[in-house]
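Re: weekly structure request thread

Next one in the queue (114 aa):
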Amino acid sequence: MNVENSKAQMKKGILELCILSIISRGEVYASDIIEELKTSKMIVVEGTLYPLLTRLKNEGLLSYQWIESKSGPPRKYFQLTEDGKQFLEGLKETWNELVSAVSTVTKNLNTPQL
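Done, posted below.
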């Protein structure tokens, strides 16, 4: 099995959690989300982000508003809805449970770092 493929699948699985976490801090523009994900080594391209944002909006987890830009056309800024905040809390709980479970299972490995 290809390690890079496995890494990509793991990142894809937690991308929703990361995006919602970024948006939970306040209104955010899509390119700001991409920049933060790149800084965190969670490289994402617009072709991946925009469909995900649209799906989250259609599910009622996000809303957006258009805000005028000083350097071009208006920009769409996203924020979490109340349902989105509750959904994010559920994802965080699941993430913490998974981290704990994986740590427990892998703690006996003879590898210096996991």
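The mean pLDDT is 88. The first helix runs from residue 3 to 23.
Next request, please.
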